[in-house]
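Hi support team,

I've been running sequence recovery on a batch of backbones for a student project. Most finish fine, but this one hangs at about 90% for roughly twenty minutes before it completes. I'm not sure whether the input is malformed or the queue is just slow. I've pasted the structure tokens below so you can try to reproduce it. Let me know if you need the job ID as well.

Thanks,
M.K.
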């Protein structure tokens, strides 16, 4: 329902009229074909009759009249929505939506819609008209929104597999997946066509494009064709098996899901209040830290503030935006699904949980090399470069240490078939949209307008209409942030698994485009208010709004919002952005210094107030990588946070993160690291993809048919001496055929 159905204010016609406009055009067209309907409803037709009617709609999409094509497209959209006017329950709507979408795909509707979408993208008249208009509204993108809505419903419905799927639906899912990844239009995949729409919009050449729908469709298309996080985990397992590597020590997805949230560290205001109450002899009031033993392994809560002297914070670390107020989330709510009630147990029975750290430690090949080089210099007096196997001359304890290090999981990145690589312009466009949709961004005259597909033609004139539009605008921005953050994270993870240099070049482009300060700017807000925002109207969600009667909306009901205490959409976006920041800065000391320079530590510490385990984990990871640069005083005054890092974040052997004695913490020229990385990437690209290659690095063609099929230029006098060459080089040379068979 985030994509298609909810629009808070649509002018005079209103939301309820827009959603039923599709129904009206379908009924008008359906009843006009009496030989098909014969007075019956759509759900009463046989499959053959439904296919015959869809074929007529497909033919009608090819008419030259633009208005007629739009009416037919709305009729198709009504079918994709599940013919809700003929259903009594929400389950029936979803059932018929799924049935109709597979029918539409089988009849070739998606291909026809793709052609119409390409026509709308190339419509220079509509683009020039939108550029000249002072204010763009929903009316400027009606055709695009209808087409994108149908395509999104088809991609998302076919992507999700259910237990009761028919065999022909399972086969259609694989076929559709392959079609989306193949060159469908002008030799480009469908996702690349959507990326083109994004860049065209951000360059101000097509300001009427509905970006929210484009971004959501792009995200779901990438998710469908490449796979989500669970598919990525399965790919890692298969690649390790193919390379004869030991299995992964744990499933990171399962470990994170099993984690429990902890209470956040107390703020300076709470510490002052606690000290004042202690002086007055009253019991301390600590609303943020009421819980003990929240983590999975019955360990002590690392954020429990039992000693105020250990938690002294800098003045800039306080969140002045929420001083004097206590958010409902700050009191005693943990953001996680409610657990089932525990079974009754006898008083003497005790539940034993596994003890220890949640993650198996890891080590890099670089760490083993550094350890051996130090040991060789100490005991032998010379080094062997990158050799990690030779242990001659080293003491027995060193042998045992190396053996232990090699037993720990070593990270690898396999090379498989390349994916299409989103260009630098695509990344810039996504960051521009993210900046425009961020709640901390200020409106500028030269910034892009992301509200083109949410503002009505006629602005609201009543308080109720203004409130509905305000909710819709905020929700619109939240969905854009959600789609962009999920899309960037998914691409980064796939690029890293596919080829490390793909990941590195995309990451470097994002860093050069100021992605790191942009994400920090996003979190430099009252993050608790953002997580608990209520920018939604439940009665307008689909399919609830088309099955049940519409209640009267008042200003009081809109202001109260729904009953949920947090917004999963915004929480999802925050976790994605934190994971992107982790991807960009991991093992990159120059980028870690950017976190220090931009004073990210107090911003990230405020994010720990959100009591959700996964979000806290990635915040602690970002704090861990910069603790060595923050100084001893910061580590001393934030011991509770340091303890939480130790308990919840994976440990790296030989990683001196808690003390700052690592050689990588020295303040040298950090830009040299980025230059060296860029040089390595350019060498790789020139060696693999440039036409004028160096012969020494040219790849060898090992295909017999390809080699024999190549045209070789021979000198003019070769045919005179050919027989002599053949006798000397071939016939006179003994060939050990048995040896070739034994050692192929």
């Amino acid at each position: 329902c985030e994509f298609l159905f909810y629009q808070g204010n649509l002018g005079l016609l209103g939301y309820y009229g827009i959603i039923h406009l599709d129904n009206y055009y379908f009924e008008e067209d359906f009843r006009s074909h009496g030989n098909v309907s014969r007075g019956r409803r759509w759900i009463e037709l046989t499959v053959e009759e439904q296919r015959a009617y869809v074929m007529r709609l497909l033919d009608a999409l090819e008419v030259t009249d633009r208005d007629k094509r739009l009416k037919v497209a709305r009729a198709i959209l009504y079918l994709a929505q599940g013919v809700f006017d003929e259903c009594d329950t929400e389950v029936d709507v979803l059932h018929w939506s799924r049935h109709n979408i597979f029918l539409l795909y089988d009849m070739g509707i998606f291909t026809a819609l793709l052609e119409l979408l390409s026509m709308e993208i190339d419509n220079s008249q509509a683009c020039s008209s939108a550029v000249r208009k002072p204010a763009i509204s929903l009316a400027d993108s009606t055709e695009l929104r209808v087409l994108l809505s149908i395509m999104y419903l088809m991609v998302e419905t076919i992507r999700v597999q259910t237990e009761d799927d028919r065999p022909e639906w399972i086969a259609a899912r694989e076929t559709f997946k392959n079609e989306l990844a193949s060159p469908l239009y002008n030799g480009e995949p469908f996702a690349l066509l959507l990326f083109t729409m994004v860049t065209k919009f951000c360059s101000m050449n097509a300001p009427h494009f509905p970006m929210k729908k484009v971004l959501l469709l792009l995200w779901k298309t990438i998710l469908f064709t490449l796979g989500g996080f669970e598919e990525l985990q399965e790919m890692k397992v298969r690649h390790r098996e193919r390379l004869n590597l030991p299995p992964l020590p744990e499933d990171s997805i399962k470990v994170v899901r099993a984690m429990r949230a902890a209470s956040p560290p107390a703020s300076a205001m709470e510490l002052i209040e606690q000290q004042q109450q202690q002086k007055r002899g009253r019991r301390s009031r600590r609303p943020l830290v009421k819980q003990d033993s929240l983590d999975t392994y019955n360990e002590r809560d690392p954020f429990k503030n039992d000693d105020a002297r250990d938690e002294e914070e800098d003045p800039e670390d306080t969140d002045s935006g929420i001083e004097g107020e206590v958010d409902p989330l700050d009191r005693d709510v943990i953001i996680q699904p409610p657990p089932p009630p525990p079974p009754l147990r006898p008083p003497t029975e005790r539940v034993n949980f596994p003890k220890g750290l949640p993650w198996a430690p890891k080590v890099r090949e670089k760490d083993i090399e550094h350890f051996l080089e130090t040991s060789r210099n100490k005991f032998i007096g010379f080094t062997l470069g990158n050799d990690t196997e030779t242990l001659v001359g080293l003491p027995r304890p060193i042998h045992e240490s190396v053996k232990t290090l090699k037993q720990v999981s070593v990270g690898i990145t396999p090379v498989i078939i390349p994916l299409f690589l989103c260009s630098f312009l695509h990344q810039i466009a996504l960051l521009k949209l993210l900046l425009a949709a961020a709640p901390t961004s200020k409106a500028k005259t030269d910034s892009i307008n992301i509200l083109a597909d949410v503002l009505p033609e006629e602005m609201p004139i009543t308080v109720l209409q203004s409130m509905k539009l305000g909710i819709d605008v905020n929700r619109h921005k939240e969905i854009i942030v959600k789609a962009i953050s999920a899309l960037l994270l998914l691409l980064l993870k796939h690029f890293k698994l596919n080829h490390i240099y793909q990941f590195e070049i995309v990451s470097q482009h994002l860093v050069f485009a100021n992605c790191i300060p942009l994400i920090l700017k996003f979190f430099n807000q009252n993050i608790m208010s953002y997580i608990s925002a209520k920018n939604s109207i439940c009665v307008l969600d689909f399919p609830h709004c088309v099955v049940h009667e519409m209640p009267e909306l008042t200003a009081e009901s809109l202001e109260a919002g729904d009953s949920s205490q947090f917004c999963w959409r915004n929480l999802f976006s925050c976790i994605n952005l934190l994971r992107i920041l982790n991807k960009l800065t991991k093992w990159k000391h120059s980028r870690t210094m950017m976190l220090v320079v931009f004073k990210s530590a107090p911003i990230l510490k405020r994010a720990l107030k959100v009591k959700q385990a996964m979000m806290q984990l990635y915040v602690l990871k970002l704090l861990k990588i910069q603790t060595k640069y923050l100084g001893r005083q910061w580590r001393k005054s934030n011991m509770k946070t340091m303890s939480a890092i130790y308990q919840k974040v994976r440990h790296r052997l030989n990683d001196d993160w808690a003390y700052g004695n690592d050689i990588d913490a020295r303040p040298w020229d950090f830009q040299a690291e980025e230059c060296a990385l860029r040089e390595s990437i350019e060498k790789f690209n020139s060696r693999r993809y440039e036409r004028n290659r160096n012969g020494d690095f040219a790849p060898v063609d090992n295909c017999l048919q390809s080699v024999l099929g190549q045209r070789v230029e021979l000198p003019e006098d070769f045919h005179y001496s050919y027989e002599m060459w053949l006798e000397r080089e071939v016939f006179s040379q003994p060939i050990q055929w048995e040896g070739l068979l034994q050692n192929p």
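--
Follow-up from support: It reproduced on our side and the slowdown came from queue contention, not your input. Residues 4-16, 282-334, 338-354, 414-421 have pLDDT under 50 and may be disordered. No action needed from you.
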